[in-house]
Structures
1.
Amino acid sequence: NAGVTQTPKFRVLKTGQSMTLLCAQDMNHEYMYWYRQDPGMGLRLIHYSVGEGTTAKGEVPDGYNVSRLKKQNFLLGLESAAPSQTSVYFCASTIAGGPNEQFFGPGTRLTVL
Amino acid sequence: ELKVEQNPLFLSMQEGKNYTIYCNYSTTSDRLYWYRQDPGKSLESLFVLLSNGAVKQEGRLMASLDTKARLSTLHITAAVHDLSATYFCAVVGFSGNTPLVFGKGTRLSVIA
């Protein structure tokens, strides 16, 4: 099992460019999450999904969109990147029910110039 | 709104000493998680605490949960350099599979 994987690992964008971050998990988890991590801020939830075809907003959703077309994949899109979106992005997944322990991907370091 | 506070946010300890990190949360919850993060790395699950009075231990780390006080502690015994990392606690709201809310993390540095 690869667990939770993220693509790409690093990316540099110019202001106004768009990009999509891909999260994939092979654990058959129902729930998937996107977080951003900034110095001194801990992890903040951007969007999450409780199943294929469903998404919901988290604490800091503005400027991001998500899609969950397949159970194993959760995409995070930036339509028009801004310097304030410079961050490290983590994807996580967990099974429905149970202890809700989340498993994290390796992260994507994004810089917006 | 569920809020999670950790203290201290920064901790420098000498090798061999003991210390405790505190995690307070603002609303009822019966699930609390501790994670470790090394610099430039992802989060690694340490403990899952699922009931009042739960205590779990792994090596020099011991975590406990008091749901009545809305408090969890992470106790470090006889610290060693390898424990240097950032430790996060996270809490689920009482309604069950709602997303985790994380504390801001405690950056631990163990020095000789």
Note: Chain B touches chain A through 22 residues (CB under 8 Å).
2.
Amino acid sequence: GAGVSQSPSNKVTEKGKDVELRCDPISGHTALYWYRQSLGQGLEFLIYFQGNSAPDKSGLPSDRFSAERTGGSVSTLTIQRTQQEDSAVYLCASSFRMVTNEQFFGPGTRLTVL
Amino acid sequence: LAKTTQPISMDSYEGQEVNITCSHNNIATNDYITWYQQFPSQGPRFIIQGYKTKVTNEVASLFIPADRKSSTLSLPRVSLSDTAVYYCLVGGPNDYKLSFGAGTTVTVRA
């Protein structure tokens, strides 16, 4: 079946611009997660959704970052006034159960802020 | 999540068995051991998960000794396509904030 998809695959933007990253989870997966992976680094947790609500936003680096999920499916991660340190690969994952360490990851969106 | 320690890199040749050992001295009673694989320009992929003794699936085997302070991921008869970074994670069933360290970069040569 179809896996987690993310778009765009690559995004180059100028410092100060806003960007939106999209995630389509696996159908039927109620939990959705966003992570960030900087070059040569491990994954950094950003936010977790159960359905359309986000019980844990603790990983969002600043108030420039926000995320929403609609219809219990698609999620959008928005970064306002991008900074160079926001450059990274943004990964989305989904899982069937609410809390699990078996998560299915998308291919990621590589964001480059010039 | 419990801290884990694994080798930074390992080299192997096609057809050989690769064993990656992960140390997790502070593993908690309800923690599971999970391994992920990540290819360049892709997201991590779940490989295998276990609690104790041995778990085997079509991709790998996971060996966990009785004290559970370490675990070994075994990849049988590797091919060039097994070249990837392998991550060892330890956490309870409610730990959804996956914490990936640097992982082990496995390079398979012809």
Note: The domain at 5-113 of chain A is CATH 2.60.40.10 (Immunoglobulin-like).
